[in-house]
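Example 5.3 — Transposase (putative) YhgA-like domain-containing protein
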Amino acid sequence: MFQEYDLILKALAERYPAHFVEMVRGITVEDVQRVEKEAIAVKRESDMLFRVSEDGYEYLMAIEMQIRPDREMPRRLLEYTAMQHREFKKPVYPVIVNLTGHKKKDER
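Solution (predicted structure tokens):
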């Protein structure tokens, strides 16, 4: 079931990237452009990568959909953001969209 949400959210983010970034960030942005994964010549890649302009400031937003608990996610996210920063020479704002159905530890 969570995999269906993963596919739906990816489709919505691809079709409406500015709205998706604004929803995740909670602010209005000037411009959002999808960055094709092929531009990153590495084996590790984010689910989605957007180039975002906000008040004259440009950065990348790396989106990861998490459909099951994964203890390695923080390390993978660190790898992704480091490689993306190196490739594009822009700050990277990583976001995990939690589709696991599990609450954070402090909410249990």
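Remark. The chain is about 35% helix and 25% strand.
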